[in-house]
């Protein structure tokens, strides 16, 4: 596996984990924990969208690099 392929795989797994964490926190929190944990879910979702943007940027940029 090349370094480029590993990096794309790592970005994909990071996206899955951040959105999975956001869903787990949002739907698994009790009523007492809802306020503070929904902030963490929101931050995790924002980071997930940031990772998607980074992944798209990396794939476009890495097309120029031949390894």
Notes on the protein architecture:
This protein is an all-alpha fold. The protein has one domain (12-62). The protein has helices at 3-28, 34-62. Helix 1 runs antiparallel to helix 2 (34-62). The radius of gyration is 15 Å and the shape is elongated. The mean pLDDT is 88.
Task: For this entry, give a set of tags.
67 residues; 82% helix; mainly alpha
Topology overview:
Layout: H1 3-28, H2 34-62
Helix pairs in contact: 1-2
Low-confidence stretches: none
Instruction: Determine Rg (CA atoms, Å).
Output: 15 Å
Q: What is the CA–CA distance across the termini?
A: 12 Å
H/E element string?
A: HH
Strand content: under 5%
Count of DSSP strands:
0
Main sheet attributes: strand count, strand direction, barrel closure:
none
Derived structural class: mainly alpha
Tell me roughly what share of residues is in helical segments. Answer: over 70%
Query: How many structural domains can be distinguished in the coordinates?
Result: 1
């Amino acid at each position: 596996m090349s370094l480029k392929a590993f990096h794309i795989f790592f970005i994909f797994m990071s996206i899955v984990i951040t959105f999975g964490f956001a869903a787990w926190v949002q739907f698994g929190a009790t009523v007492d924990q809802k306020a503070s944990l929904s902030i963490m879910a929101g931050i995790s979702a924002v980071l997930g969208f940031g990772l998607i943007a980074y992944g798209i940027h990396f794939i476009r940029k890495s097309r120029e690099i031949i390894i």
